[in-house]
Target: Mitochondrial 28S ribosomal protein S34
Amino acid sequence: MGTALASTAQSLRSSHFFRFSFNLFRNLSSASSSASAASQNPTTPKKSKRRKKKNLFEVAQFLPSWGIGYHMAKTHWTDVSYEITKINLYKDGRHGKAWGIVHKNGLPAADAPKKISGVHKRCWRYITNVTKSSESSPNSTGSADSGLKTATQAS
Model:
């Protein structure tokens, strides 16, 4: 009985070694075939990650004073934007309420601000070519004042 157990143990060891060497050979051959497949087709198009669109508050958080005075519009709107006049944020900073003045073709379409609907929808963008109205007036008067100061100093 002892000899039978010893021969069984020896055969298990040899079969384990055989299985290990076979798995090693299979892994090496599959790794080389996948590497050769990758080298044969290097122009495989990579999946482009889709950029997550932002709601109004996620766009405004990077602007000075949360975008008050700046123009925002939905991505599918053409020639329509809101000049943000007031933002009421909830604690998380991604939700809240916003008010603004409607602009069509760059000109104000209303005198009084109104509540902006759809601020939580993920389709908002910042309009870059329209300047902030409160920033443009001090810069223009400041440059005119400096021109007057230099003209009076020269005479």
In short: The helical segments are 2-40, 56-60, 133-154.
